[in-house]
Design goal:
Rossmann fold; 9 helices; alpha/beta; about 200 residues; seven-stranded mixed β-sheet
């Protein structure tokens, strides 16, 4: 049986940290996993910036509540789920994702958790497991699934390369150039066609 593993931010929804960075006027928070492959370094930097500016979970959640999925994302996801099971693997956090999951029709999401103090300060984060996306793909494979994956960032390459097939979607030029053997698409129609071909193979 085949299962599709799909990144969330940059694929189905805008980058939530970028949305918050723009709303808060803090350009340093625009860095994402497209820019920084070391996730721990990225998150510790974000937490330090939030502390410096006196911002916490409530402020971020207010911005996320105004964010919508990318145009065409819901229709793409619905069409894909008619073909096979889809699992969204993301480095986002449960405290961020719920409003967007509602707008996407409640797909299955595996993600991480923030550590939040009683006053709302974000003090740390907890990964669901080490190398969350790659570990999940390997676990699915160990119980008989063939995985097909797509994402846009450095942290998606492990799950993309570990599976039966994999694609980059709306990625950066640098990531595209560094991975010329991975098909790269820019529209949902192209990505859906790629998935359908991989499912038939």
């Amino acid at each position: 049986m085949k299962i599709i593993c799909l990144d969330l931010e940059g694929v189905l929804v805008p980058e939530m940290w970028i949305a918050f960075a723009d709303a808060a006027g803090i350009p340093a928070l625009r860095r994402t996993t497209r820019d920084e492959p070391d996730y721990d370094k990225l998150m510790k930097g974000r937490i330090a910036i939030l502390k410096e500016h006196g911002l916490g979970l409530a402020e971020i959640q207010r911005v996320i509540a105004t964010v919508d999925p990318m145009e065409g994302a819901r229709a793409f996801l619905d069409a894909l789920r008619e073909e096979t099971q889809v699992l969204i693997l993301s480095d986002t956090f449960t405290q961020f994702a719920k409003p967007l999951m509602k707008k996407l029709g409640w797909p299955t999401l595996f993600c991480n958790e923030l550590v939040v103090a009683p006053d709302g300060e974000i003090t740390d984060y907890r990964l669901r497991c080490e190398q969350t996306k790659l570990s999940t793909v390997k676990a699915l494979q160990s119980v008989g699934f063939e995985t097909i994956a797509a994402g846009d960032s450095f942290n998606d390459l492990g799950m993309i390369r570990a599976g039966k097939s994999g694609f980059l979607f709306r990625t950066t030029d640098a990531i595209r150039r560094a991975n010329p053997d991975v098909p790269a698409f820019d529209t949902y129609d192209e990505l859906l066609a790629g998935f359908r071909a991989a499912l038939r193979d």
